[in-house]
């Protein structure tokens, strides 16, 4: 609880790429155009919705090329820092990342009404959904890059 410095490294930053590599070799993530100003929910403030999710590398060439999944619903498509949580790290649209001790709880949802997944099942993180629609993955590495 309150041991992560992750939030302090990204606060007051914008144009961030969150890259996630999971233990299965999938590489996916989120691009946030809007500045992170506090610990609450962020929506892309631009009218042209510049933030998006993506998959760069899929296991066994499930996707033939890197894909971009654009926001359709800003109320659900932003991000949320989980500063007060003892296990949560950050929510990136349909991606939920947890701290090291609970990293096996990391998951993605794939809501077609929130992002355009082009009708591709398990496009974002490559997992099959359980009965609740959750697709669990275990992050191997998380990298954040600020674009200039």
Provide structural commentary.
The protein has 148 residues and is mainly beta. Helices cover 6% and strands 33% of the residues. It has 2 helices and 11 strands; from the N terminus they run H-E-E-E-E-E-H-E-E-E-E-E-E. Strands 3-6-7-8-9-10 form a 6-stranded antiparallel β-sheet, with no helix packed on it. Strands 5-4-2-1-11 form a 5-stranded antiparallel β-sheet, with no helix packed on it. A hairpin with a 4-residue loop joins strand 1 (16-22) and strand 2 (27-32). The longest helix is centred in the first third of the chain and has 5 residues, at 6-10. The mean pLDDT is 83.
What gap, in angstroms, lies between the N and C termini?
A: 32 Å
The oligomeric status of these chains comes to: single chain
Q: Please tell me how large the radius of gyration is.
A: 14 Å
Largest sheet: 6 strands, antiparallel
Spatial shape:
globular
Which strand order do you get reading across the main beta sheet?
3-6-7-8-9-10
Query: What would the average pLDDT be, to the nearest integer?
Result: 83
Spans of at least 5 consecutive residues with low confidence: none
Strand content: 25-35%
Number of helices: 2
Structural class: mainly beta
Q: What is the ordering of alpha helices and beta strands?
A: HEEEEEHEEEEEE
**Helix percentage:** under 10%
Per DSSP E runs of 2 or more residues, the count of β-strands stands at 11
């Amino acid at each position: 609880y309150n041991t992560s410095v992750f939030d302090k490294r990204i606060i007051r930053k914008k144009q961030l790429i969150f890259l996630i590599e999971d233990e299965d070799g999938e590489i996916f993530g989120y691009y946030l155009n809007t500045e992170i100003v506090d610990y609450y929910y962020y929506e892309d403030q631009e009218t042209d919705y510049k933030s998006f999710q993506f998959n760069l590398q899929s296991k066994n060439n499930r996707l033939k090329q890197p894909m971009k999944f654009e926001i359709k619903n800003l109320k659900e498509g932003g991000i949320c820092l989980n500063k007060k949580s003892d296990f949560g790290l950050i929510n990136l649209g349909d991606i939920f990342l947890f701290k090291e001790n609970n990293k096996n709880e990391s998951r993605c949802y794939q809501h077609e009404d929130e992002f355009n997944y082009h009708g591709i099942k398990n496009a974002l993180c490559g997992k099959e959904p359980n009965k609740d629609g959750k697709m669990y993955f275990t992050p191997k590495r998380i990298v954040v890059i600020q674009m200039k």
